[in-house]
Amino acid sequence: MTVDEQRIITIAYELREANAEGPVVEIMDANWPFKFYYGSGKLLPAFEEKLYGLEEGEAFKFILSPAEAYGEVRQSEIIDLPMDLFEQSPETPLAEGKYVTVTDDQGGQHNGMILSWNNTAVKVDFNHAMAGKALHFSGVILNVRSATVDELIRKSYIKEDGVRGN
């Protein structure tokens, strides 16, 4: 069976930043594979496209450009926020590289990384953590199966215990 729409795909892979020698970002091995419903719209479209048509047992290796992955870094997503939005306490000090969740005026929550701060403002980067980075995937298709009726309805992989996956 090949990777196609409405199938549950199980893969093992190694994700590195930039190229095959880049820093390791994530490893999903045969003991902890990644299982997903192909065509759910929840994954990067280019990621799914690169796997399309591969057969069970077939190896893959490809690079997604920043545009195919999480986009380029947008300067408009790096914002100076008033210091008073951040409650300073000894238990939660400001720290460069720390991720924070900020709620906007409409109640939407946004995750960002603290870049710097001064007495009046905190500079926060709301770009995706992988924005501006090429992603190198290498791995193997472990299993391909048809989705069950419930998975087709939910457009999601359902674990054996009934919990929805990707």
UniProtKB/TrEMBL annotation:
Record-linked InterPro entries: PPIase_dom_sf, PPIase_FKBP_dom, SlpA/SlyD-like_ins_sf
Alphabetic keyword roster: Chaperone, Cytoplasm, Isomerase, Rotamase
SUPFAM superfamilies cross-referenced by the UniProt entry: FKBP-like
Source organism, top-level taxon: Bacteria
GO biological process terms held by the UniProt record: protein refolding
Entry function: Also involved in hydrogenase metallocenter assembly, probably by participating in the nickel insertion step. This function in hydrogenase biosynthesis requires chaperone activity and the presence of the metal-binding domain, but not PPIase activity.
Protein name: Peptidyl-prolyl cis-trans isomerase
Compartments (UniProt record): Cytoplasm
Key word Isomerase present: yes
